[in-house]
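Reviewers of the previous submission asked for a worked example of the structure-prediction workflow described in the proposal, so we include one complete record here. The input consisted solely of the amino acid sequence. No template or homolog information was supplied to the procedure at any stage.
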Amino acid sequence: MMFRRIAFSIVCMVVGTTLTVFPQKKHADESVFKSYKGLIMAGYQGWFNTPDDGAGRGWTHLAGNGKFEPGFTKVDMWPEVSEYKKTYLTPFLDKDGKSAYVFSSHDRSTTDLHFKWMKEYGVDGVFMQRFVTNLKEKRACNHITTVLENALDAAQKNKRAISVMYDFSGMREGDADVVINDWKYLVDSLKLTNRGNKQTYLYHNGKPLVALWGVGFNDNRKYSLVTIKKIIDFLQNDPVYGGCSILLGVPTQWRELKGDAISDPEFLAVCKKVDIIHPWFVGRYNESSYPKFESRIKDDISWCKLNKVDYVPVVFPGFSWHNMRPNSPFDQTPRNKGNFFWKQLSGAISFGAEMIYVAMFDEIDEGTAIFKISKNPPIGKSNFVTFENDVPSDYYLFLTGYAGKMLRKEIPFQSAIPLKK
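From that input alone, the workflow returned the following C-alpha cells.
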C-alpha cells in the first residue's frame, strides 16, 4: 500500500504498545553555511529578460514604456558583458558606434558567471528575490523558478550561500497560501533545503533561513499582519515543511512605529518572534547625511540584543533611476569612487553588526548593482551612470569581499577605503 507523506501521526498497535509515528521534516539536518553571522550577502533580482531568451517575456526590466531603444529604458547602468557566454543584440550604440549587448538572467550561463564572480571576489552569497506577484503569473513564475534552479546549482558548484527572499510588494490579503504552496513546491521539486548536509542553502540558528521582505510598511499595502503571521506560523511550525528561521524585512522606522512604518504595536510583537530583523535603508541617506543615521543602526542593534533577535543592516553602493523616472535627478546618490559604500560597510562593522546585506548584486534598474558595470555604456537619448575613470568595473565586488574578511576579523579593521591592486 502506498502512503503519501502528509502532516499527521499514524498510531500503530505493536504488542500492546501504542507507537506514534511522526511526520518527517523535509529539510537536511544542516548546511555548509550554518549561520548568517560572519557573512556578507547580497540581494539577487535575476529579473532581466530579452525577446530571444526562451522565457517569452520580451525586454523585461529593460524596456521603458514598452520599448527598449535609445530614449526608452528602465535601467540606469549598462552591464559589462565581455565575460558572458551568451549575449543579446540591442538597438543601442556606444561612443564608437558599435552595437551594445546585454545578458539575460534566464540563461544558466549568466547565473554561473555571477556565482563564479562571487567566489572570485569573496561575496559570500545571495538572497534570491521571489516576488509573490510573480508566483501568480505563469510566465513570470516559470522564469524566476528557472533562475532559482540555476542559482542553486551554481551556488553548490561555487560553494556560495543561497537563500530565498519572498518579496511581498504587490501581494494582497489572502495570498498567504500562494507563499505556503510555493515553499512546498520548492522543497519538494527543487530540493531547496534537502540536498544533503553538504548543501549550501543558508541556515541560521540550526534551521533553513527564509527571508520575508515587506512587513510593516506604511504605504497602503493590500495585506495585513494576519496574512504575515499565517506565513510565519507555517514556516516555523509546520511539522513537515516548517522548522525554519525567519528574516523579516521591515521599514527604516520599525522600532518607533512611525514614518515609513505602521503604528500597530502588534507589528513589534511579530518582530520579536523572528530570528533576524532587516530594516530597509536604500534611499534614506547619502554620503553627507549618513553620519546622522549611524545612531539609528546602533539603537536597532541594542533593541535586537535586548529582545534576543539578530540584526542585519542594509548597505548600498549608490542609487539612480533617471531612465525609469525621467523627471527624477540623474545619479541621485553618487558613489564617489566607492567611498559612500565603504563608509557604510566599515560603519556597520564598527557598530557591531555581525552580518551585512548588500542591495543589490545585479540591480541596474536603480543603479545599486555591485557586479561589473560597463565603462563604455551606450550614448544618445538615454543616459547611463558609469564609474569614474580610475575606478575599475569590478571595484564594488572587490570592496564587498574585502569587507567580508574584515567582518570575520580575517584582516584588521580599516576605516579608509582599500585600493584594488
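DSSP finds nine helices and 14 strands in the chain. We consider this example representative of the routine output the project will generate in years two and three.
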